[in-house]
Amino acid sequence: MAIATLNSGRYESNGVAVQRLLHEIPGLAAIDVKAHRTAGQTVHLTHSFGLESISDAAMVAELLKLVECGALSGQADFESAALGLVLTCADDPALCWQAFYDNSLDELASGRSPFASVHHRALSQLAGSSVLEVGSCFGFFALRAALTGFDVQACDISSGAVKLLRTAAGRLGLQVQARVGDALALPYPDSSVDTVTLIHLLEHLPSHVDQAISEALRVARKRVVIAVPYEDEPSPHFGHRHVVTPQTLVAWARQADHAGAEIFEDNGGWLILDVPPAHAS
Predict the structure, then answer these.
(1) What is the mean pLDDT of residues 141-146?
(2) What gap in Å lies between CA 194 and CA 130, rounded to an integer?
(3) pTM of the model
């Protein structure tokens, strides 16, 4: 396992080294990130992100440019570079994460993030007053659901992501109960929340998607909300394992025990499953 280091505005992990420039460039919507690879195969990134500009959407936009030109390759490169950009945008890591969360939530709420429409649609599909987000990652959707007034729980297989979400929720005064959990064996009782969401999660699973859907239906009292990207081929930098099509959603619905299914397209594919009354009781 690679050891990550952070020192004096420089982060290095998994063959990716990230260095902050001395001054942030004010007034730019996107910050230019430069990359070069040394003979030792370490990718060196320099950037001018700061506390005012670091955000999920801005960061991903810059990293995708590096994927397209071949400077970054694969999920490990992408994730190491992303962490490096966040952690080197200021001298204090706690302030870095605070700015990253605040700026990203503001982008989502204002519609400036490309993912804002997915959140908007997902929020409109929630049934009841309580929700569990499975595969929460940074937990932006869980936080937005809590801000909207839902009783929110969240789980992710990454303990680091869960810790970040707990810290962000506490700082914002939001009641989000986050814990480590596997989508294939959710650590929640039967029929314990109204809606379970699987938002851009299932394309990451190498197998047993049907088991993840069954687990979500077991825990939900009313509904399961599934969202997936439609891609010509899986995005390796995002850790996608397979392509999902409308026909895939139809097959998933046929395999699941539900009381009704709706499939539609809106910035990707959606599968909405209603929970059978016997499960909800």
Answers:
(1) 98
(2) 5
(3) 0.92
